[in-house]
Amino acid sequence: MANTSSRALRLLSLLQNHRFWPGAELAERLGVSPRTLRRDVDRLRELGYPVTAHPGVDGGYQLASGTALPPLVVDDDEAVALAIGLRLATQGADTSAATEEDTADGGTIAEAAARALAKVTQVMPARLRRRAEAVAAMTESASWDAAHAAWERLGRPYPAAYALLHAARAAVARGDRDAAAARLRAGAELAERVGARPLVQQIARQARQVGVGLPLWGQAAVPTRFGLTERETEVLRLVAEGRGNRDIAAELFISPKTASVHVSNILGKLGVATRTEAAAVTYRLHLLDEQ
Description:
three-stranded antiparallel β-sheet, Arc Repressor Mutant, subunit A, mainly alpha, Serine Threonine Protein Phosphatase 5, Tetratricopeptide repeat
């Protein structure tokens, strides 16, 4: 028979995961007598858990709502889910979605989530931490990518660039350097476009950590021939491969509208009217051989 402490934890776990337990069934699950079960229930009540008893032949026990939150017992899957949820909640601190009135002590929900996450991860076994981090990285990346797409549709380049920075960080966390590089370059271009130098610097720092090269606007971004910027050169390379605007947008992590603007600029600078002519000029003059 399990010792009293482990049995009490097992009882608590069962009560948390079931609305109502008939007394006989609960005693059988724990492998104890009804009398021992009553004593274990009393121990939980002394610890602050509001266990209610229903008398009678069909009576039993259930965990009720209390005035204060007692400690909870979670299994491995629940612990991973809890850590992922808390990690996603901390994004509120970065996006300024929360307000100072969110919590009773004047902090934000995101800040409270960060404190709770620290407590949870401190006691999690290493195997569960690795699992939670892997799943969270994939979830965060999808979340930030969706945020970027939403801001792009609204024509808001600054928050779109901010979302790209965090999407890149999530990609780094899951080990996808190529995805991180695409997001960092697209984010840097957006941030530079609106003159958000602090954000550009944040993106540049992240790029250096990952080993990703970014254009130096006003310097290396303009090649010597035809005045094509570095981004336009990237677009031209894809145009020469016969890629459409949607494919170009997906490859460079920009919107199809932005891709279309780049293509129009390229046609004007090359003095041609169609994408086919642009590709022909590219190959005839070996424009991409210089890059």
